[in-house]
Structures are given as C-alpha cells and as structure tokens.
TrEMBL record, chain A:
GO terms for cellular component: cytoplasm. Transmembrane segments: none annotated. It comes from Devosia crocina. The keyword Lipoprotein does not apply. Residues 11-282 form the Dihydroorotate dehydrogenase catalytic domain. GO terms for molecular function: dihydroorotate dehydrogenase activity. SUPFAM superfamilies: FMN-linked oxidoreductases. It holds the Pfam family DHO_dh. The lineage of its organism: Bacteria, Pseudomonadati, Pseudomonadota, Alphaproteobacteria, Hyphomicrobiales. Pathway: Pyrimidine metabolism; UMP biosynthesis via de novo pathway. It is found in: Cytoplasm. Its EC number is 1.3.-.-. This is Dihydroorotate dehydrogenase.
Automatic annotation (TrEMBL), chain B:
One of its GO terms (molecular function) is oxidoreductase activity. Belongs to the PyrK family. It comes from Devosia crocina. GO terms for biological process: pyrimidine nucleotide biosynthetic process. [2Fe-2S] cluster binds at C244, C249, C252, C268. This is Dihydroorotate dehydrogenase electron transfer subunit. FAD binds at R73, P74, M75, S76, G97, T98. The lineage of its organism: Bacteria, Pseudomonadati, Pseudomonadota, Alphaproteobacteria, Hyphomicrobiales. It comes from the Bacteria.
Amino acid sequence: MVDLSVDLGRGLILANPVMPASGTFAEGLARVIDLNGIGALVTKTITEELRGGNLTPRVAEVSNGMLNSIGIPSKGITYFLEHTLPFYRQFTAPLIVSISAPTVDAFARAAARLNVPGIAGIEANISCPNIEEDGKAFAMRPGTTEQAVSAMREVTDLPLWAKLTPNTGDIAAVARAAEKAGADAVVVANTILAMSIDIETMRPTLGNVMGGLSGPAFKPIALRMTYQCARAVNIPVIGCGGIATANDAVEYLLAGAAAVQVGTATFTRPNAMNEVIAGLTEYCRRKGFNRVTDLQAALNAEMLIPDVMEAAQ
Amino acid sequence: MRQPENSAVTPPVDPFSALAADTSARVLRNEWVNAEYKLIVLDAPGLAASAEAGQFFNIECPVVGEDKPFFRRPMSTYAADAETGQVEFLYKVAGAGTRGLATLLDGQTVRILGPLGVGFTLPEHVRSIVIMGRGVGLATLAPLAEMAHRRGVAVTAVMSARGPEQVLSVDRFEATGAAVEIVLDSDGTSDLANVEAILRRLHAQGRADGFYTCGSNRLMLLMKRLAGELGIYGEVAMEQQMACGLGMCFCCVRNFDVDGETVSKRVCWDGPVFPLAEATSW
C-alpha cells in the first residue's frame, strides 16, 4: 500500500499530490470524471473586477504544446462566491481559489474576501501585469513578489500559494521572496511567453499576438525551475508545466516538488489527472517507496558536483 | 473510477455518473463521399451513442507524418444510434487533424469525447420548420431533420452549395420525408435574394414556424433578419476553434446579443446551438 498523501503546510493535507493547473479546469470536467479522486481542485483565476478576456483566436497549437492568451475573463469575486462556490462545495477534494489583481492593495482585498467556508486555500496568480510597475508581472521580481504576498498574508490565515512566472531571470530569488513574505507554497510555474505566426496569412496565430506556452514542449524548462526553487526554499514547491503522464509527475517529484498540477493535458485527455494518480501508485510500488513524499529526496545526486549545483542556483 | 488506496476523502454519497465519456471507438467504415468529404462510422456504445441532434464530440485525431495535431478537433454528430451503438461523423479533409482522421482504417480505434454541448430544441408550438445549411453545416442539421420527423414536425430543407457535387446528405433529409430545395452557386440559385424569396414563400405557405441553420454566416444573417421581421422562432449551430470542449479553457467564445447587451459565451458550453435572435455575425 502506497501512501499518496502530502502535507502542503498550514494544515492542508491532500489525499494525493495531483491537482489541476488553474485555467485548465472548471465545472465541465465533472461531466466526465469523478472530481473526488483528485488531490485538490484549483479554480480558474478570478478577479475582483469584471474582465472580458482577449480577442480570438485565444489559443494556437504548436509542436507538442499550445499557446494561450485568454485574458482572464472573470465575472468577479461576488459572482464566484454566489454562483460557482456552491457547485464546488459538493465535492470532498479541497478547493483552492486562484486570484489575480492589478495592484498590491487589490490582491489583499481579493484575498480577504475568500475567508469563507468551502475554500481551503488561495493560489495567488502573481504572474499577471502590475499596473503600478509599468505592467511588469509581480512575479518577475523578488521585490514586487514580496509586496503582493505580504499584503495577502496580512489579511488571510488560509494556506496561501504564490504562482510564479517563468518569465524571470532568477526564479529561485523570486521563490525566496515569496517564502519570506509568508507564502505557504510556491507553484512553479505559469506559462512562458511565446508566439507563433501563420505563414499563409502572415498573421500572428493569437489575437493578442503573444501568449503563454504550455504542454509537453514546456516541461523541461518548468522542471528545471521547479528543481531550482525546491533547492532555494523550505516551503513546498508545487510543480507545474507539461505534465501529461505519471512519468512526468515522477520527474517533478524527484526534482523536489511536493505536489504537481496537471494542466494542458486535461484539454486533450480529460482523465489525465486520474491516470497520473494511478501511475504514481504503480511507480512507487515498483520502486519500493511506501510514501510518495519519499520521492522528494530520492534524486540520485551523485553527479551533482559543486560547479553544476552552483550553476543551477 | 480509480481511487488512491489510502484516500482520505470519503466516497461521494451518490455514485459518480458521467454525462459524457471519452470513448475509445472502433472504426467500422471511413469512406470518401465526394472529392472533399469523408464519412466515418464508429462503434461507440454507451454514452456516445446517446448524442442528440446538435451535440458534438471532441475527437483525438492521429498523428501522421508531418501532421501533428495537438488539440482534439470538435465535430458535430452526423448520426448517433443508441440501439446499434454507432456514431457517425461527416468531415471535410482540410487540415492536420482531419488529414489524420482520414487515414484511419477499419478496426482501428479513435478517442471521441462526448456527447458535448447543448443541442437543438423543437418548442411545443413548432409544427413546420425550415432547415437551411451550407457545406458541412448540412451534416450538423441532418440529425435535426430526423428528430423533427420523430416528433411529427414537418421539415423543408434548403440546401446551399457551390455545385451539385457539394450537396451532402440529400438522402438523409429525403428519408425523413423532408421537402428538399437545393440552391447552388453554379446556377445562381444560391443568391441571397433568391433564398430570401424561397423563405418568404415557405412562410406564406405556413411551412415556416421555425428556422434552423448552420454553416454560413450570410445565410444565418438572412434567417435572423427574416425571423425577427416575421416573428419566427430560430436556432443556429455555431462553430469555433476549441481546445477542451468542456467549457474550461474559454477559447471558443463568441459575442451574442442578449436583450441589447453584448455577451460573450462559450460555444462548447453554452452552445453550440444558440437562439438565432442572439447570434451575431462571425
């Protein structure tokens, strides 16, 4: 028997380390799979204000992955609390609500409104533009990351995760800033900025020209960042980026992740999360691990000579 | 549904029952019906074969050579029969996804997620409807003619195409007893003024208390204008690029006119069939 449970801090224990990545999951999946088998449920990002979203086309397929520029359409937190939250209360899997905001104060206001029954934690999507800092994403820099996370920490006792952006030069420093500001975990990572062009129409394939790359093509980059962050902080790192199979998830856990998020894969295989959960059990059994958490310290590190380790910092 | 052995969560009180399934369907036939279109017939018993008119599936198209479709491809149901367990799709071989689909041989399998979305409805007051479509839109509308037939609703099908070769599924419509009017680009009968005259004549004859359309923006706009003017109930099946098909990714949005307000709706989740009165140009 393999123990798949994971402790993500502040009293939040998941039955297994697999959950959806924000933006790739909504009520519709309950039509196809039993959501109670999933470790946690993570909502699409909601904002205080109403947002319409970007021009279409909002997605494009690339080799082994996809680009998206959806634009965080949101009906606002009030609508979410009144109409969406009751749907999720019928499931036993803990609900993590992803929030975003254009300013530090707005992040705090949004976080403060989520202290209600049925919400088990907050994932702060700090990968969005900060309008007080020239539109640069909060998580591009340690300073703005610390400001946003601190402001939320002051107003909530819920587990608070910071979702980091890969569009930064030093993600380990950003992860340390989130930890210092009181984050209970970091999610590594959001999508990486990318673009593609249709050579027949000679137009960008996305209505918004640029968008985020996700899917298997992005996995090695997000895995490297997960590894860097896991070495840099003492809080749990939740790996995210291109996980489509149990083998992908095992790689992230070996890289130091405490849990994983499955995103784009659910678009093409709606049962992907359950397949990852089943495959993790099989892997642990085959390799003789009694607890999935044992994988976190199991990376064979013989090759990690000091120079390589320094380069990875 | 597989649960982790040590799962701390209690099982739901009610056992989980799915409304859509990711079915591994077996190919029974995959044949050309003209120079551009193929018909694939699948053995897909269970939920898939319960698809209603206007509902769709998200289909995992095989990777073949340089064609590596990453997303699934949404396709409207051409036929679904719960008794035989068969599901059919009529598709134009046009891009990386459908080129891959076209290579499937009898006995091979393909994953189809569905049935998805909101299908056509026939309100109680409707006794005689006009179904008007063009191109592959006619494939979407064929099951509606059969649904109307089962409900005792008379159907006139106005089928628009470039030329006689591109008029698809006439036999499907005729088998339901539908009156078929074919309008073509090649002889000029598909001209909007002529189509408008046909619709007005059908209305004057009491044969149009419902309008249903798919596959052409200009035909939709014509039907919407006449439906508004003549007070006719109407529905339109929309297409849009999709990724998940389950309302999760928010990529397949279109704008709709709801009581004078522009509202963004997901084609996969709120549709693909929408009230004609709410439709806007695409």
